[in-house]
Specification:
Helix content is about 40%, strand content about 15%. Helix 7 links the parallel strand 2 and strand 3. The protein is globular. The chain binds thiamine diphosphate (TPP). Thiamine diphosphate binds next to helix 3.
């Protein structure tokens, strides 16, 4: 660990405030170094936190958190905030079981004003807090939303701004513009932000505004009317530029250099005196201060472990001998299918790298679309493509699809459109924690009429499902698969059409039937290897489809077995096991059924293995359930 002169004495924002403005430069340096030191060994998000070091220091120097509220959007950039607010010494436990959460959490600290993980919520939440403060007469309270240019592409951010413009609350929105999402940021807004950053007249206006602000203190009690006068003049110039934020009734300030901590302090201090909703446009560099991260911001968004001196990453070395990631099988298979079926198009809301849609984007740029962090739009956009005869593969992480539920129902399912939803990161994802686990999708997709709900156990079946889904008139089709690798190194199998609603027998047995859905079913082989030694014979069925269920197979199973275990990497309530139970009740079987899956609670962060264990469906947990049933 490096030597820290200041940081080790800062246990709260109060401690930070004891230092002189000039010392903040050194403190920022130390904070940046501390993030590098710890995240190189305890991996997590990286480049985003480095980019907002100065902004974080300035915010905590100027504002009075936790009374004043700082709301981080997404929250993957809030490591500096955590370190300055009493969590420096526990920061090495970040994202580990029982340790700090990788995102702000209201259960973790009073300084974390709002729980986050999904993007574009900060403005609405902060506005709620600001309006609440007004209602309670806390007129001195400041509420600040810090939102990135990527997160700003989400519709919810616009809904928040639109509403903020008519509420006369003390809301400050800080737009942290680094011109990046995880991948390069996209869309009209991104271009607009670039334009106003470089526009000469804007910079002139900016100068005038800051000249005015510089004079605020000198004018004492008459400041308000003075500013108003000047501002009206300035504003008319701004309006001529049709500033999108001004048009929504937010006062726009900036753009300013987000790495000049002293200037940021001055600006934020000045903005404190300006009432009403306002937006400060701050320019930063993602990965600032760590060369590799500055040069490859996408990789260094969340790089895994690395050597902080050489910048070498310690991941992916044995890729060749392992089975591929489901994501890469998805990307490559989509290209294969798209080569033959010209109607196929690919859609991703801001996750080209994470989902491997990138492979399609490279091969067929004109037939693939990164639509920004806009899941709802991604679904309805897909519906539009489908209604006109295209064959969209809309790839959305299971957890983020939660936002687009109505679009799935209203825009796709009711109209029976041929849209394939590839739900990535289905199941427990591990260290990203409660906000990111994809645990609800089997349950929420299952209740939608017309929807086919499938989950492959392995890579060849992912390919088969994708192949089947793009055949004519299959209607809405969802395919969910987990984060990470499968089990089939030679995954490039010939694709076959599957019969929809047909499962498969993996193994016959005499004592207990295990019915699994999806890749979690691969654990059953290990379970079998253990139990066979104790003369316990399990039968294993990979059901492939949650909907329609394979009723023929279920009839055979329930006639043969009075002990049945269902296994899913998803919520127990309403999921696959519930569907099997419903079938059993409706068909007058009365076998003993144990449903294994996620109990009715939010699961925190840890490794996937640790979390399976906690939920009772790792190999040990499944073995125990089998034995318990046989007692
Ligand atoms: C609803 C939702 N969709 C996708 C994501 C995945 N995601 C996390 S951070 C991020 C990019 C955010 O970009 P920006 O707000 O500009 O922050 P930066 O990392 O550039 O600082 C994305 C797409 C998410 N967290 N929430």
């Amino acid at each position: 660990m490096s030597d820290y002169k200041f940081l080790h004495k800062i246990n709260s924002p109060e401690d930070l405030k004891k230092y002189k403005n000039e010392e903040l430069i050194e403190i920022s340096k130390e904070l940046r170094q501390y993030i590098i030191d710890v995240v190189s060994e305890s991996p997590g998000h990286f480049a985003s936190s480095l980019g907002v070091v100065e902004l974080t220091v300035a915010l905590h120097y100027v504002f009075n958190s936790p009374y004043d509220k700082i709301v981080w959007d997404v929250g993957h950039q809030a490591y500096g905030h955590k370190i300055l607010t009493g969590r420096r010494d526990s920061f090495h436990t970040n994202r580990k079981l029982g340790g700090l959460c990788g995102f702000p959490s209201v259960f973790e600290s009073e300084y974390d004003a709002f729980g986050v993980g999904h993007s574009s919520t900060s403005i609405s939440a902060a506005l709620g807090m600001a309006v609440s403060a007004c209602l309670k007469g806390e007129n001195d309270k400041h509420v600040i939303a810090v939102i990135g240019d990527g997160a700003m592409t989400g519709g919810l951010a616009f809904e928040g701004m639109n509403n903020a413009g008519v509420e006369n609350s003390n809301l400050l929105i800080i737009l942290n513009d680094n011109n990046m999402s995880i991948d390069p940021n996209v869309g009209g807004l991104n271009q607009y932000l670039l334009d106003i950053t470089t526009s000469k007249s804007y910079n002139k206006v900016k100068k005038e505004v800051w000249d005015v602000l510089g004079k605020i203190r000198k004018f004492g009690p008459n400041t308000r009317s003075f500013i108003q006068k000047i501002e009206n003049g300035v504003k008319s110039v701004i309006m001529k530029q049709s500033n999108i934020f001004e048009a929504m009734n937010l006062r726009y300030f900036g753009p300013v250099n987000g790495h000049d901590v002293n200037q940021l302090v001055k600006i934020l201090d000045d903005l404190k005196d300006i009432k009403g909703p306002k937006l400060l446009h701050v320019l930063t560099k993602k990965g600032k201060g760590f060369e590799n991260a500055e040069n490859d911001q996408t990789t260094w968004h969340a790089p895994g472990k690395f050597d902080k001196d050489t910048g070498e990453r310690f991941v992916g070395k044995s890729d060749k001998i392992l089975a591929p990631k489901f994501q890469d099988v998805f990307g490559n298979t989509l290209v294969e299918l798209a080569e033959k079926n010209k109607k196929i198009v690919g859609i991703t809301p801001a996750m080209p790298s994470g989902s491997s849609m990138k492979i399609m984007m490279e091969k067929f740029p004109e037939r693939s679309f990164d639509v920004g962090i806009a899941e709802q739009h991604a679904v309805t956009f897909s519906a539009g493509l489908a209604v006109d005869g295209m064959m969209p593969f809309c790839n959305i992480y299971s957890t983020f699809m939660q936002r687009a539920f109505d679009q799935v129902v209203h825009d796709v399912a009711i109209q029976k459109l041929n849209v394939v939803f590839c739900l990535d990161r289905g199941g427990l994802v591990g260290d990203d924690g409660a906000t990111h686990h994809g645990t609800l999708d089997l349950a929420y997709m299952r209740i939608v009429p017309n929807m086919i709900v499938a989950a492959p156990m392995d890579e060849p079946d992912l390919r088969n499902m994708m192949y089947t889904a793009q055949l004519p008139n299959k209607g809405p089709f969802s395919i969910r698969y987990p984060r990470g690798r499968g089990v089939t190194p030679n995954w490039k199998t010939e694709m076959q059409e599957l019969i929809i609603g047909k499962g498969r027998v993996i193994k016959e047995g005499k004592d207990v039937a295990i019915l699994s859905i999806g890749a979690i079913g691969n654990l059953v082989k290990e379970v079998d290897n253990i139990l066979i030694k104790e003369d316990i014979g399990i039968a294993h069925y990979d059901m492939r489809f949650v909907k329609p269920l394979d009723e023929e197979l279920l009839n055979i199973i329930f006639k043969k077995f009075d002990k049945v275990i269902t296994l899913e990497d998803g919520v127990i309530q309403g999921g696959f096991g519930s569907a099997v139970l419903e079938f059993m009740m409706e068909n007058d079987y009365n076998s003993k059924v144990k449903r294994l899956g996620i109990p009715d609670q939010f699961i925190e962060h840890g490794t996937q293995q640790e979390l399976y264990h906690i939920c009772g469906y790792d190999v040990e947990g499944i073995c125990n359930s089998v034995k318990k049933m046989l007692k």
